[in-house]
Amino acid sequence: MDGPRVSRRALLVAGVLGAAAVGADAVARRADDNTRRVASPVRTSARPDVGTRKRVVVVGAGLAGLSCALTLLDQGWDVDVIEARDRVGGRVHTLRDAFGVGTHVEMGAEFIDRDHHVLLGLLDRFGLGTDVRDKSQRVALSWDGRRADYSARVERRGGDLYDDIQLVTDATARLAAQVDPENPERSEQAERLDAMSLAQWADRLGMTAVGRRVWEAGFIVSDYGTASKDISLLFYAQQENFGSSSDAVVEALRVHGGNQGLAEAMASYLARQSRVRLRLGEPVVSVRTQPGLAMVRTATGVYPGAHVVIASPPPTLSAIAFDPALPPPIQEAVNSSLLDDITKVVVPYRGHPWRRAGWTGESLTDLTYTYSWDATDSTPSAPNGALVAFTGGGAAGRTITHLTPEKRVALVEAQLRRVFPEVLDHEDHRYPAATMAWADEPFTGGGYANYRPGQMLTAKPAFRRAHGPLRFAGEHTEAMGQYMESAVRSGLRVAKDIGLAPHP
């Protein structure tokens, strides 16, 4: 075994159109110009005009919606992209120069695997590079009030947790082999696996109490963003078929200049096309569909089309009036908080004191926050450092989400001092810490999707089907979920499906 290692899934757009290579700064400037331009009044109509049969309305300007719009444009469709926020990117949100010039941090989706080829292909098309993370130093395990080298305790043969983690790793491999990742519903044990929670399965393996707790925090909460009791065993088995076991591949990259630069580049390209209307700051209030026609209404406009693609996170759909109503499995998933209470707190420091002490800044803990890492480990020239403290769902996630931002920051700052005492006297009080509780973000409602027991055979297939002219995109609709790569793939898949559908 190479050694099971803590990892963090990234949220959580390729093969579309050729574009002139542009730098990240130019992309950001064009995006700002685009924001001003798209704020102009939009023509509305009570009836669809003759062009409606050639138009698709995309709700949501995150990576899923933008990749779908770009591909539809390439296929010859006219496209309206409607976004509730005043920015593009969705759950990809970069704070640039957050703690001084040259220090940018990701408040949402963060990491890219080296085998996320669809996403990497799109970065190449838009002339955007990547930065490689430096993960060469030690990861800290802060447990029961003590700090240890994570590898020595968890990954190294003979460590007190090695046998437990080896046991669950081997059992996971056997479980995943039973499931077709692209068609999990066809698996022989699909109904039984979907009815069971991941926690129920893990409890039967016979891990020690401490091993069970470390696995829960380091392999489930830090990776899936929620507790094992809230995950369908079928969903877990499906997801464990994806990704690499190599630390050199997993979560190795960030977009140079910030992940949001990709969304800004796509939006800037779209805004320059005559067959595209991109509207920011327009929450959708209703979607009405009938055979061959969709009508999307915001507070200021009505957008007709032959198809509508909902590329918004499931919790946001509760604020939209659908006529006809959403299919029952989808409505049930919307009501069940499919996304979890994921939070980030990013604390600035002068220099990188943890690195001088031989630590990466990564830590797995039994404290309120689950996992930490160095926000600047892919930009070593950044003059200031910052640690990201991530808290997944479950009891800790709910607790920290419901704190005020000030109390949340104070709690995490104190816990980071306990885990990395090297940061004492290095906190950079020139800049306030940044925090994001995604469950409280009004146009998101949580981090990324985990299917609950009983939902994999009902809700997920429903999200992947067409319902008349209504379709859904987003990481929650993909076979491999929870990554930026997943969002991109979903946009391409839906655009392809629409392209294959006959024009009304």
Structure in words:
- The chain is an alpha/beta fold.
- The chain has a domain at 24-91 and 258-337 and 448-500: 3-Layer(bba) Sandwich (FAD/NAD(P)-binding domain), CATH 3.50.50.
- It has 16 helices and 20 strands.
- The strands form five sheets. It has a seven-stranded mixed β-sheet.
- Strand 11 and strand 12 (302-305) form a beta hairpin.
- Helix 2 (63-74) runs parallel beside helix 10 (260-271) and helix 5 packs across helix 9 (233-239).
- The longest helix is centred in the last third of the chain and has 17 residues, at 484-500.
- It is globular and about 65 Å long.
Q: Please report the total strand number as a whole number.
A: 20
Q: What's the CATH H-level superfamily name of the domain at 24-91 and 258-337 and 448-500?
A: FAD/NAD(P)-binding domain
- Spatial extent as radius of gyration: 22 Å
Largest sheet: 7 strands, mixed
So what's the overall shape?
globular
Strand content: 15-25%
Q: How far is the first residue's CA from the last residue's CA?
A: 55 Å
Q: What top-tier CATH class of the domain at 24-91 and 258-337 and 448-500 fits best?
A: Alpha Beta
What strand order characterises the main sheet?
7-6-16-17-18-15-19
Average pLDDT reading: 89
Helix content: 25-40%
CATH topology label of the domain at 24-91 and 258-337 and 448-500: FAD/NAD(P)-binding domain
What's the helix count? 16
CATH architecture of the domain at 24-91 and 258-337 and 448-500: 3-Layer(bba) Sandwich
Label the structural class: alpha/beta
Unreliable residue stretches: 1-5, 8-48
